[in-house]
Amino acid sequence: MTTTNGTTSPSTGTGTGTAQKRTDPGAVEGDFYAVKDLLDPEERQILDRVRAFLDAEVRPLANEQWADATTPVHLAAGLADLGITGSAYHGYGCPGFSNLLAGLLTMEMGRVDASFATFFGVHSGLALGSVMLTGSDEQRRRWLPDLLAWRRIGAFALTEPDVGSGAAGGLTTTARREGDTWILDGRKKWIGNGTFADLIVVWARDVADGQVKGFVVDKSNHGDDRVPGFTATKIEGKVSLRGVQNALIELDGVRVPEADRLQNAHTFKDVARVLKTTRGGVAWNALGCSIGAYEAARRYAVEREQFGRPIARFQIVQDNLARMLANITASQGLLVRMAQLQDEHRLSDPQASVAKMFCTTAARETVQLAREVFGGNGILVDHDIARFWADAEALYSYEGTRDMQALIVGRAATGHSAFV
């Protein structure tokens, strides 16, 4: 198909074979304001390379793995070859990308499979990020090479069965020091990658001073990888992010050497430093989920016929698509500015919170609108939209619920804390 400027543009077929010219201004169908054009040529090549990997390796298996509740751990070597792990961190072998490129990489993953984006984010953002931000120089040199190369996979254990949003003051997992060894006791829940991770960052309260500290349970310290007192059990029955292996972890007298205590993690404020960065990552994942849902709905609307015409010609369907694009574009604008603030080292906790709050809320509405376009077919995993629709629910809640983010923003707005 030839456009008005003489260039060739791909076509999307309808159920009757009639060609429909694409009018999307960006290379990503949901990138209505062409945010990708903000990248320099080298960054665009990186993004395109990752997108090709996702389309070739992740997309074909996404629905099957979601239905089977399995994680594509076999793609670890491919992720290592992409060179994007630890994307926005500098030094120690990290690529040092701009935060905009790092965010768009997460968006591309979420656009294909939010579970895959979470699998990557837990390893690269939460686990690797904990070592990078709160570890010593020696610990970074010891652990980061294996994490960057995906020779060993990381997990991040903060949430507990009875403590989610109240982790700052209510964490019950304890750490007791005996000489050069720490003894960890407690339980953790919803720990992504927890069933197969090699390095598990565990946050526990020091019984001596009451402060939250970080510890790395390193399975390589044990010949058979079986850590005495450490048990990780896969959580079954999830209806969201089924491609993520969440674990219930039992810590019964787990011994961690002082050398494996994160040396620059002294209070919960240090946990918050990690979460501020990854909270933005969840917002980018939610944006990707929104784009994936919109693109699926748009394709379906053009191809699906009712009453002798494509449903894309009906006003209600077009209204739904327009509202989806508006949500996506508003989220993109917010996240682009967030990335700029991150690059300038000026992003505050409330600013990160408003991004997570807004983008995940917008995603929840967007996937619902997309679901409506599909009618009865929308409940079938084969059409992709059921997966996006369900996954948005977890993005809305994890790493701080919408309500908790709202209270963080409200405290900044008013100067008064509404936390109990």
TrEMBL record:
<dbReference type="Pfam" id="PF02770">
    <property type="entry name" value="Acyl-CoA_dh_M"/>
</dbReference>
<keyword id="KW-0560">Oxidoreductase</keyword>
<feature type="domain" description="Acyl-CoA dehydrogenase/oxidase N-terminal">
    <location>
        <begin position="41"/>
        <end position="148"/>
    </location>
</feature>
<dbReference type="InterPro" id="IPR036250">
    <property type="entry name" value="AcylCo_DH-like_C"/>
</dbReference>
<feature type="region of interest" description="Disordered">
    <location>
        <begin position="1"/>
        <end position="26"/>
    </location>
</feature>
<dbReference type="InterPro" id="IPR006089">
    <property type="entry name" value="Acyl-CoA_DH_CS"/>
</dbReference>
<dbReference type="InterPro" id="IPR037069">
    <property type="entry name" value="AcylCoA_DH/ox_N_sf"/>
</dbReference>
<keyword id="KW-0285">Flavoprotein</keyword>
<dbReference type="InterPro" id="IPR009075">
    <property type="entry name" value="AcylCo_DH/oxidase_C"/>
</dbReference>
<dbReference type="InterPro" id="IPR045008">
    <property type="entry name" value="ACX4-like"/>
</dbReference>
<dbReference type="Pfam" id="PF02771">
    <property type="entry name" value="Acyl-CoA_dh_N"/>
</dbReference>
<dbReference type="InterPro" id="IPR009100">
    <property type="entry name" value="AcylCoA_DH/oxidase_NM_dom_sf"/>
</dbReference>
<dbReference type="InterPro" id="IPR046373">
    <property type="entry name" value="Acyl-CoA_Oxase/DH_mid-dom_sf"/>
</dbReference>
<protein>
    <submittedName>
        <fullName>Acyl-CoA dehydrogenase family protein</fullName>
    </submittedName>
</protein>
<comment type="similarity">
    <text>Belongs to the acyl-CoA dehydrogenase family.</text>
</comment>
<feature type="compositionally biased region" description="Low complexity">
    <location>
        <begin position="1"/>
        <end position="13"/>
    </location>
</feature>
<feature type="domain" description="Acyl-CoA dehydrogenase/oxidase C-terminal">
    <location>
        <begin position="271"/>
        <end position="413"/>
    </location>
</feature>
<dbReference type="InterPro" id="IPR006091">
    <property type="entry name" value="Acyl-CoA_Oxase/DH_mid-dom"/>
</dbReference>
<feature type="domain" description="Acyl-CoA oxidase/dehydrogenase middle">
    <location>
        <begin position="155"/>
        <end position="254"/>
    </location>
</feature>
<dbReference type="InterPro" id="IPR013786">
    <property type="entry name" value="AcylCoA_DH/ox_N"/>
</dbReference>
<dbReference type="Pfam" id="PF00441">
    <property type="entry name" value="Acyl-CoA_dh_1"/>
</dbReference>
<keyword id="KW-0274">FAD</keyword>
